[in-house]
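[Discussion] Sanity-checking designs against the backbone

I'm trying to build intuition for which residues belong where. Below is a structure token string of 185 positions. I'd appreciate it if someone posts a full sequence so I can compare it with mine line by line.
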């Protein structure tokens, strides 16, 4: 992965996740060390609100879509709520309006857990809201001579729903279709 090739191979993806696992370990250690100092009701609310706003509505829409694309607003909500920048701003605002407190550790704990444990990073408009293997990515791995990793959280490849690949989208009226690239006239 580099500036000219902004994708991750299975190995770089694992290394990327490992960095977040270190952050998860540090925040877990701090939470355990300060467990008696944490106000648990605000901590639970801060932990849950990220998914209540950023994940659950999109997950419901994805499951209800029956294979149709879902609104990009769900992706934006996920990405905004699962951003270290957003949660850093929430923590700063909390410190200013409420008080600095150990309960705020659950914000990075949530994000580090999502990324380190589950491999959930920002969501791209070009992909389904939930992880679904893309044939193009598998072809890329073949071209690079890399093994296909087992899909995370799945015994086998899940059915691709909630997304229409760009190659299946109809060309716009008056657009020319390039020949020799798998397109038909």
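Best answer:
Here's mine. Compare freely.
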């Amino acid at each position: 992965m580099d500036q000219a090739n902004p994708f991750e191979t299975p190995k770089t993806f694992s290394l990327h996740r490992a960095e977040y696992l270190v952050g998860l370990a540090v925040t877990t250690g701090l939470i355990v060390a300060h467990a008696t100092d944490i106000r648990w009701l605000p901590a639970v609310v801060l932990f849950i609100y990220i998914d209540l706003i950023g994940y659950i509505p999109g997950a419901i829409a994805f499951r209800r879509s029956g294979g149709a694309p879902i609104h990009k607003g769900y992706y934006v909500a996920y990405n905004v709520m699962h951003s270290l920048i957003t949660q850093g701003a929430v923590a700063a605002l909390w410190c200013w309006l409420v008080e600095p407190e150990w309960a705020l550790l659950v914000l990075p704990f949530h994000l580090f857990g999502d990324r380190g444990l589950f491999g959930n990073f920002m969501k791209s408009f070009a992909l389904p809201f939930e992880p679904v293997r893309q044939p193009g990515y598998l072809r890329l791995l073949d071209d690079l001579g890399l093994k296909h990793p087992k899909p995370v959280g799945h015994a086998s490849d899940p059915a691709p729903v909630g997304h229409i690949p760009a190659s299946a989208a109809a060309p716009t009226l008056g657009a020319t279709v390039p020949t020799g690239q798998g397109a038909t006239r």
